[in-house]
Amino acid sequence: MSLYRIIRPLAFALDAETAHRLTIKALRLMPPHRPPDFPESLRTRVAGLDFPTPVGLAAGFDKDAEVPEQMLSLGFGFVEVGTLTPRPQAGNPKPRLFRLRKDRAVINRMGFNNGGQPAAYGRLQLDQRLPGIIGVNIGANKDSEDRIADYVSGVRAMSSVADYLTINISSPNTPGLRQLQDEGALKALLQAVNEARRKNGPPIFLKVAPDLGEGEPDQIVRVAIQHKVDAIIVANTTVSRPPLKSRHASEQGGLSGAPLKELALKALRDFRSASGEQIPLIGVGGIATADDAWERIRAGASLVQLYSAMVYEGPGIARRIANGLAERLKREGMSNISELVGTA
Ligand SMILES: Cc1cc2nc3c(=O)[nH]c(=O)nc-3n(C[C@H](O)[C@H](O)[C@H](O)COP(=O)(O)O)c2cc1C
User: Fold this and answer.
1) Is the CB of 260 within 6 Å of ligand 1?
2) Could you give the CA distance from residue 233 to residue 59 in angstroms, rounded to a whole number?
3) E strands along the chain, which residues?
4) What is 188-200 written as a DSSP string?
């Protein structure tokens, strides 16, 4: 029986945010150790980076980069910290995080609560880190008068401690942020980001919403390729509400977990048909099993990420999914996970 089976009822007796805080505190007490060894068949190269497995931790769990190495030790193939804004900010009033147990889902309206980029920078300094891929997800402060300037300063501030940077323009909890996905705004943003990018700086990923209209994926892909974005992460939480059973179903915020699965898969397919093989995609939203990850990779994802399923299944989930993928590759006679990408 996994340790998480014992811990889960205790964690679920607390309100969701308290449980999350305690989890981070407990993880901080765990000295990071060398990550597990994974089969060679899972090793994959995306945007010039070598990933030991394609199964990563999505942004929002470790917003302040407190435990990225612990999460790598637990078997995530890569970890994305953040969203980090230039200045610290408190986020929205509590309660702002809800478990929807019957739906295996989460609703959050955290609103980029974080300690700011300078504090995270200190923790992420490369010379004190074990090997492993840590991405840094950046955003804009809620009260910023110039949001594009916030992304530019994020690129400048965090490039030297990030293996990749994610430009997050898809959180539903900072009013107006998603408008940066509109063609004109996106061009202006990505042009400014490009000017701030260093010559040998980290690759830049763009994270989009699953709630896009007809034609928007094509537009975003076009602009992203024009501006040398290295990968697109599809997708963030949804503001839509598929049928839900839990009492928190009508809370405002972004929905993640099982009810997001079909929507995020459809969004990924739209991005794949818009992009062909021109830009790598990272699939996220409702992934909870090796079969889910398999399907996402077949639909065009070079990598996958998850967060909500870990709330229900514990941190061992990344390793279970990775090993499940390796077993299935073997069964299907494939030698490497990259052969599977986009075969659906
Ligand atoms: C509590 C919570 C906080 C999140 N915070 C962020 C964030 O700060 N930045 C971000 O890009 N995504 C954030 N996300 C979105 C996740 O990274 C992911 O895109 C989404 O939850 C879908 O994946 P999942 O269904 O596996 O959770 C957050 C998700 C949750 C549940």
Assistant:
1) yes
2) 11
3) 44-46, 49-51, 55-57, 78-84, 97-100, 105-108, 133-138, 164-168, 204-208, 231-234, 254-257, 281-284, 301-306
4) HHHHHHHHH--TT
Report the DSSP beta bridge partners of residue 78: 56, 133
Q: Which of 100, 234, 268, 307 to mutate to test the pocket of ligand 1 (most atoms within 8 A of CB)?
A: 307
Nearest-atom number in ligand 1 for the CA of 258 is 25
Verify whether residue 171 is a known catalytic residue.
yes
- pLDDT > 60? residue 133: yes
Q: What superfamily in CATH does domain 3-340 come from?
A: Aldolase class I (3.20.20.70)
pLDDT at 66 over 90: yes
Look at the alpha carbons of 333, 337, 339, 340 in this order and tell me if their dihedral is positive or negative: positive
DSSP SS3 for 44:
strand
How far is Cα 14 from Cα 123, in angstroms, rounded to an integer? 28
Q: Which atom of ligand 1 is nearest to the CA of 306?
A: 26
Question: pTM surpassing 0.90?
Answer: yes
DSSP 238: B
Per domain, the residue ranges of the chain are 3-340
- Is the pLDDT assigned to residue 43 strictly greater than 80? yes
* Ligand 1 probe mutation, 237, 289, 312, most atoms within 8 A of CB: 237
| Residue 113 identity | N
Which class for 49: exposed (0-12), middle (13-18), buried (19 or more C-beta within 10 A)?
A: middle
- Write down the catalytic residue from 41, 171, 256, 302: 171
Residue nearest (by alpha carbon) to ligand 1 atom 15: 236
Rounded-to-integer distance, Cα 141 and Cα 259, Å: 29
Tokens of 282: 């990272």
Cα separation, 332 vs 292, in Å, equals 16
The finding on whether 91 has its CB within 6 A of some atom of ligand 1 is no
pLDDT digits (tens, 9 = 90+) for 103-127: 999 999 999 999 999 999 999 997 6
